[in-house]
Amino acid sequence: MSNASLPPNAPMMNGSLTSSHGEADASSSLEHICARLHSQVDSFLAAPPSDDVTKRTQEQTKITLGVIEKALEDYELAYPAVW
């Protein structure tokens, strides 16, 4: 399988952001991870599709992001009382 359609700096395997014990790497804050993922998704969506599967995946990703955006606008996040 070719990695030609992956965004730059995409992780090559699951768990690449965690240590061998499943704990987050101390240098990777949630904010940093979210920013990196945002950049990778933006790069993927901005790239010209190389085939029909990539084009459909980009279209579905845009739909999914719209659904998430709408949910974040419509519903508030309830924090536990212990916070």
Output the radius of gyration.
16 Å
Secondary structure: number of strands: 0
- How many DSSP helices? 2
Spatial separation of the terminal alpha carbons:
45 Å
**Bulk shape:** flat
Strand content: under 5%
Mean pLDDT: 78
Q: Helix proportion of residues, in percent?
A: 40-55%
Element order: H for helix, E for strand: HH
Which blocks of ≥5 consecutive residues have pLDDT under 50? 13-19
Would you tell me the structural class of the helices and strands? mainly alpha
**Major sheet: size, sense and barrel closure?**
none
Structure description:
With 83 residues, the chain is an all-alpha fold. The protein has a domain at 51-77. Helices cover 48% and strands 0% of the residues. It contains two helices and no strands. The protein has helices at residues 30-46, 52-74. The protein is flat, with a radius of gyration of 16 Å.
Short overview:
The chain has 83 residues and is mostly helical.
List descriptors.
single chain, 83 residues, mainly alpha, 0% strand
Topology:
Layout: H1 30-46, H2 52-74
